[in-house]
Write a structure and sequence with these properties.
Length: about 325
């Protein structure tokens, strides 16, 4: 059977680092509160004139380099973002253009913090139907542009960044020993759409709007939803918390990650954590974390890697893949 195998990954973080101490000068917060409640110590913030596409292009170039392939061999770009450069065209076509590609297809996908899992699933499905041979799956965000910098309940949580993976359709045996994406599970429940949203948009207010969140409500649902889709991934493959090598969750809050891992009996040393340095970069957080763990030598070819995310909508999902 055809599987979507990861050929490489890469990421990019804006130069500017914003510490908790600096934030405490702007809003009524403290390093102690932020670290204790979220695990976040710092986040990166895009420079003036630095757009989501700029971060995405750098992450895509790093992923192509890591994969050792040329952009001309890519025929699909799926870019997950909730902070596109413009309402349209898709930020993905800016990436396509910057990579010098005039063939194939490029489009954006929006599932907020779950965006990378949704994009990976979409690209995997298209590759497996023969719609393309190689895909770039990108998560890229500039959430700093949609934050209300006077709201301490949200502005301390998010950061900017981008990550990307290159997938290739490869013939595999059809067993759990295969490399590539083994299973994906997507969910959403629009009853919760007002718990984490942006209070503007082209059709409603003709403004961009700011992020609004009932943090405690999101927190309350997160662990249960995450656990459900991971249980689905294990049931679909026969794998388990014992057999996975790495758990790379969406990086929103260390407490949510710790509680999810604990509930699923995933050993703490298997958990890849970047929320302390990156904050919550929404759709970019998983490919950023993958990139960190690949670059420092933790994730190696053949490793079984479990991904999950939960975010606005609510949307949530999991993916299990062999690197
Ligand atoms: O990416 C996916 C979506 N996002 C998430 O997964 C985020 C989910 N939610 C969370 O991570 C947590 O709910 C937060 C980190 C946002 C908040 O933590 P919490 O433990 O749920 O705190 P809380 O909202 O219950 O607030 C506790 C107190 C409140 O004061 P009172 O009412 O007890 O006097 C807040 O006003 O902490 C106060 N507070 C702050 N204090 C200092 C809220 N934000 C801050 C802040 N600094 N930045």
């Amino acid at each position: 059977m055809i599987r979507s195998v990861v050929l490489g990954c890469g990421s990019y973080l804006p130069e500017r680092v914003l510490s908790n101490a600096e934030l405490a000068k702007k809003v009524d917060t403290s390093d102690e509160w932020i670290v204790q409640r979220t695990g976040i110590q710092q986040r990166h913030i895009a420079a003036e004139g630095e757009f989501t596409s700029h971060l995405a292009i750098k992450a895509a170039q790093a992923a192509l380099k890591n994969a050792g392939i040329d952009a001309q061999s890519i025929d699909l770009i799926v870019l997950a973002t909730s902070t596109p450069d413009n309402t349209f065209p898709a930020t993905a076509v800016a990436v396509q253009n910057a990579l010098g590609m005039t063939h194939g297809a490029a489009f954006d996908l929006q599932a907020v913090c779950s965006g990378f899992i949704f994009a990976l699933t979409t690209a995997d499905s298209l590759l497996r139907t023969g719609a393309g041979k190689r895909a770039l799956v990108i998560g890229a965000e500039t959430f700093s542009r949609i934050l209300d910098w006077t709201d301490r309940g949200t502005c301390v949580l998010f950061g900017d960044g981008a990550g990307a993976v290159v997938l290739e359709a490869q013939q595999q045996d059809g067993t759990a020993a295969d490399r590539g994406v083994l299973t994906t599970h997507l969910r959403s429940d629009g009853r919760h759409k007002q718990k984490l949203y942006v209070d503007g948009g082209p059709s409603s207010t003709q403004t961009v709007g700011y992020l609004r969140m009932e943090g405690r409500e999101v927190f309350k649902h997160a662990v249960g939803m995450i656990t459900d889709v991971i249980v689905d991934a294990f049931a679909a493959t026969g794998e388990s918390a014992e057999t996975i090598d790495w758990f790379v969750p969406h990086q929103a809050n260390k407490r949510i990650i710790d509680a999810s891992a604990q509930k699923l009996h995933i050993a703490p040393q298997k958990v890849v954590l970047t929320v302390d340095r990156h904050g919550n970069t929404s759709a970019a957080s998983i490919p950023l974390a993958l990139s960190v763990a690949v670059n420092d030598g933790r994730i190696k070819k053949g490793d079984l890697v479990l991904l999950e995310a939960m975010g606005g909508g609510f949307t949530w999902g999991s993916a299990l893949l062999r690197w």
